[in-house]
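Kindly inspect this today.
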Amino acid sequence: MSGKIIGGGIVALALVAGIAIYYLQVYYYYEEVDASVEEVALTLLGGAPEPILAENVEAIDATSSPIRYRACFTTPQSLAMLTETYEMYEGAEPLVAPHWFKCFDAMEVGKALEDGRALAFLGQKNIAHGVDRVVAIHEDGRGFVWHQVNEEIKK
């Protein structure tokens, strides 16, 4: 009889720990970023980051990791003008956002990048050690931002 009690206690403790870990990873550390302060910037060809026209900015970030940043926005600027002015980003791989951050769909963004319906630009090189800010913009003006580990860390 005491084995059942101990076994049940272990299972209950594991369940509580699992729920706590899930909550901490998906909800606890993320914070919404104030859209009135958040600027979307792209790196000029051979230059420094420069803000672009961005509307309807929604962003989240977490202090627990430099790669947890995600943002969505719209821009009236054309892809043709952006490609002539700003640095492209090779090897862009959008990272999955928490399910509750509805505007950022990494699978959709990744597919659009593969199909050529969106282009990836360098937002800022080494925004944190070994991490770049990547900005993908669809042909319809929707934009997505995330942080991605660069070649400095991948080696």
